């Protein structure tokens, strides 16, 4: 169940009630692709303020596999995670990881990136795997087109995604009717809007999904190579079409300024690999000002949406930090910034200590989660 508590312009302050807990929105979901957030433990992820994490159906289908996941009792039990989980259906990973795949009306046949084995994912098998995972939010299986595709390819992918959405809806509802879930009615099914950078295709996709009926709606197929202004335009257009009483999820994209811009276009949920991936390479997101001051500027309208002036990316491996004994970020409240200097973290990266990636990941995830906290605060 989703409730919009307040609005500031198009931005929404909401509450999403799921089987494993409440998600206050706008929200950011750390990515635990294979059942773990890279370089950090799940208790630490929770302590940083994460309300929900993301598992990936494609990767968990490959290992441990469908039958093993059933025997293990699902991801919550496997990971010992008691908060909500969202599962990506696997469509994007088939698009991005498999060099040899064949898209047909039934589904996608592809070669495993692990051992080359041939595997087929259909809308029905994606629903079955996500049912075994036991995620709170299940994503429909969709056809993802490259960001530089022709209009014809975008339209074909959008129409096929709509047909697959109907099949996902039927398979999902059948499972609920037959009580094939750990707890009946414990999962929610989201549809995915496709159509590339073409507004008319996006509108057709959104309305087609709304006719089918879903618990929430995602904006997919962006952050795959299209210009940023096209992304912003499509997000605004799509949010204007989607229903007010359902959560909206922007899939897989999010520099901090993009998240802020899309929140003020009406998006409620985000996920992105950037905070953890950048951390592992020594790039840190740091505040240029007190986060609360940034929030006040958002409310007053004195900060331009889309500007990145409120933060900077710090390459902590740079020689210039070799003797810098100051905190990573004086405006950050994470344990890394409270206990580790720039010089020390640079040293750890320089000598190849694995704990360097761990400390950097703590900071970057806290930056993203703190950003969402400040956004929720100003939208109260």
From TrEMBL:
Needed co-factor(s) = Zn(2+)
Q: Name one GO biological process term.
A: tRNA queuosine(34) biosynthetic process
Free-text comment on the cofactor: Binds 1 zinc ion per subunit.
UniProt: Zn(2+) binding residues: 332, 334, 337, 363
Taking every annotated instance into account, which residue ranges of this chain make up the domain tRNA-guanine(15) transglycosylase-like?
10-377
Q: Which UniProt keywords apply?
A: Glycosyltransferase, Metal-binding, Queuosine biosynthesis, Transferase, tRNA processing, Zinc
Q: Which family does it belong to?
A: Belongs to the queuine tRNA-ribosyltransferase family.
Q: What is this protein called?
A: Queuine tRNA-ribosyltransferase
Q: Which organism is it from?
A: Candidatus Uhrbacteria bacterium RIFCSPHIGHO2_01_FULL_63_20
Gene field: tgt
């Amino acid at each position: 169940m989703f409730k919009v508590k307040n609005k500031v312009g198009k931005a929404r302050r909401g509450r999403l009630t799921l089987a494993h807990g409440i998600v206050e929105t706008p929200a950011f979901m750390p990515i635990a692709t294979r059942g773990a957030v890279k370089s950090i433990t799940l208790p630490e992820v929770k302590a940083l303020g994460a309300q929900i994490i993301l598992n990936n159906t494609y990767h968990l289908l490959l290992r441990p596999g469908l039958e093993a996941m059933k025997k293990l009792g699902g991801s919550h039990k496997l990971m010992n995670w008691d908060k909500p989980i969202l599962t990506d259906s696997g469509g994007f990973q088939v698009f991005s990881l498999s060099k040899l795949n064949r898209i047909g009306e039934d589904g996608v046949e592809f070669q495993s990136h692990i051992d080359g084995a041939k595997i087929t994912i259909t809308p029905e098998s994606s629903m079955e795997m996500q049912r075994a995972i036991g995620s709170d939010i299940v994503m429909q299986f969709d056809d993802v087109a490259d960001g530089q595709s022709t209009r014809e390819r975008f339209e074909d992918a959008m129409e096929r995604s709509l047909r697959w959405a109907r099949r996902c809806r039927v398979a999902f509802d059948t499972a609920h009717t037959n009580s094939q879930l750990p707890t009946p009615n414990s999962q929610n099914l989201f549809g995915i809007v496709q159509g590339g950078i073409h507004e008319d295709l996006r509108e057709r996709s959104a309305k087609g999904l709304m006719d089918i009926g879903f618990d929430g709606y995602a904006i997919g197929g962006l952050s795959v190579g299209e210009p940023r202004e096209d992304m912003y335009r499509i997000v605004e257009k799509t949010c204007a079409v989607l229903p007010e009483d359902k959560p909206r999820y922007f899939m897989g994209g999010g520099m901090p300024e993009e998240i802020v811009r899309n929140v003020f276009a009406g998006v409620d949920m985000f996920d992105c690999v950037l905070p953890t991936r950048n951390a592992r390479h020594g790039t840190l997101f740091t505040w240029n000002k007190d986060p609360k001051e940034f929030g006040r500027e958002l409310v007053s309208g004195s900060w331009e949406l889309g500007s990145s002036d409120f933060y900077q990316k710090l390459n902590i491996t740079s020689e210039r930090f070799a003797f810098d004994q100051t905190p990573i970020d004086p405006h950050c409240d994470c344990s890394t910034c409270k206990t580790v200097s720039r010089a020390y973290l640079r040293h750890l990266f320089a000598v190849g200590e694995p704990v360097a990636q761990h400390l950097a990941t703590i900071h970057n995830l806290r930056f993203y989660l703190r950003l969402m906290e400040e956004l929720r605060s100003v939208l109260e």
